[in-house]
Amino acid sequence: MSEFKVPEKMTCEEFQSHLPDLIATGEDIFQHPHILECELCRSLLADLEAIADAARQLLAPAEDPPDTVWEQIQSKIQAEGPGVREEEPQIETADPAKLK
Ligand SMILES: [Zn+2]
Question: Does pTM top 0.70 for this prediction?
Answer without folding.
Answer: no
